[in-house]
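[audit] Reproducing an earlier prediction to check determinism. Same input, same settings, fresh worker. If the tokens differ from the archived copy the diff job will pick it up downstream; this log only records the rerun itself.
[audit] input (183 residues):
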Amino acid sequence: MVRVLLLVGSGIFLEGDGKDTLAAREQLATEYVRKTVGVVQEQFPSDWAPKDVGTTIPTSLIPTYVIIKMVAKVFALFGWGKRKQRESVSALAELAASLLQVVNRMSCALDDSLLMMSSSSQDEAPSNNNLNPEILDPNVWGDVCERVRQGRSAMRERIKTVLEEISDELATFDNNNNNNNSK
């Protein structure tokens, strides 16, 4: 996607007859964006564990999301904004939809883990059979387990908020939805 930014902005990756036109830049940028749709589907798994969601957001999801937003801004600067009926805009909408599927799967994984946490009994704390009561009071152990549970729940809620914001923004790339809103 960084290639798309360089290509559209400067024409740096143009090949062939050497004619640097906006149409040539748009065509090649569209090809790059369409290739990226497949990469996104391959890069992110279809099944998520909650711990993987938490680590993937800062390392992969947010950088991909930010680059998509940057490409959208550059496209808009060149007159290929979200409301236009162009191949480049359509390709970017496909990419956003692909990433939106990933975000939705991540969100479902968190929902499932929250349901499991809320349905689990307070009595299901980790076993304290190996604890020496002279060293650690069993009541303290229960408090520690409860605080860990609360911390995990709070973290999942924060992650859920981030995913919802990204999801809402990616949904704005839907060409059909944007065209219906502009009429």
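[audit] rerun output stored. Observation attached for the diff report: Residues 121-125, 177-183 have pLDDT under 50 and may be disordered.
[audit] end
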